[in-house]
Design a protein that fits this description.
By secondary structure, the protein is mostly beta strands. It has one domain: Exo-inulinase, domain 1 (Jelly Rolls, Sandwich). It is 8% helix and 40% strand.
């Protein structure tokens, strides 16, 4: 079963012509970092370092598309995320949490905060992230107000923007409210103890 999973990840990283790479594998051209944390390019991959930070793609917002990231967790709690539906270019690292959706990366959290969840808003099916050190393919489909998250070939979350969500209890949980159909995308660097690599960030309209 593990062999088949590895074959799926390998095949999924061969991009057809209709996918647009947002990360060129060499540097962060087209991206802007906010916050004290940072992303560095190492062996053709984006690597999280330092504290809280948000690296966003500044060249254009996206809607009615699929965002794909290929990532692996190699140390610590492995906490990170993919930001979607950001209405404006962010000025601080928490902007994405409170104004967009964070599609969470965290294999050890509960279903409201685990990989594939819209952080504290829409829970995900768990158990589909590969073990530490192995690559994962996450695809996030944006279709109007519907968000669908697929992890390693399995649909783990589907959320409609007007559906009920849990009450907000902590300051760091997202401010509740509507998100736009079209917005900027970004990646989260969560903390110095989490190291996450991204070898692909692509969009298909």
């Amino acid at each position: 079963m593990r062999f088949l999973s590895l074959l799926f990840v390998a095949a999924s990283t061969l991009l057809p012509a209709d996918w647009k790479p947002l990360f060129n594998g060499k540097d962060t051209t087209g991206w802007t970092m906010v916050g004290p944390g940072r992303f560095v390019v190492e062996d053709g991959m984006l690597k999280t370092e330092g504290g809280m930070g948000l690296l966003y793609y500044e060249r254009e917002p996206f809607g009615n598309c699929t965002v794909r990231v290929v990532f692996k967790v190699v140390s610590g709690h492995g906490n990170s995320g993919v930001f979607i539906r950001l209405p404006e270019k962010p000025k601080d690292p928490w902007y994405g949490v409170h104004n967009g959706y964070e599609v969470q990366i965290d294999a050890e959290a509960d279903e409201w905060h685990a990989t594939g969840a819209l952080y504290s808003l829409a829970k995900a099916k768990t158990g589909f992230q590969n073990p530490r050190g192995e690559w994962n393919v996450m695809e996030i489909e944006l279709r109007g107000q519907v968000t669908r998250v697929t992890l390693n070939g399995t649909l783990v979350n589907e959320f409609r923007g007007d559906q009920p969500v849990p009450e907000r209890k902590q300051w760091f949980e997202p401010v509740r409210g509507p998100r736009p159909d079209i917005g900027y995308v970004g990646l989260q660097n969560h903390d110095a103890g989490s190291t996450v690599y991204f070898r692909e960030v692509s969009v298909r309209k």
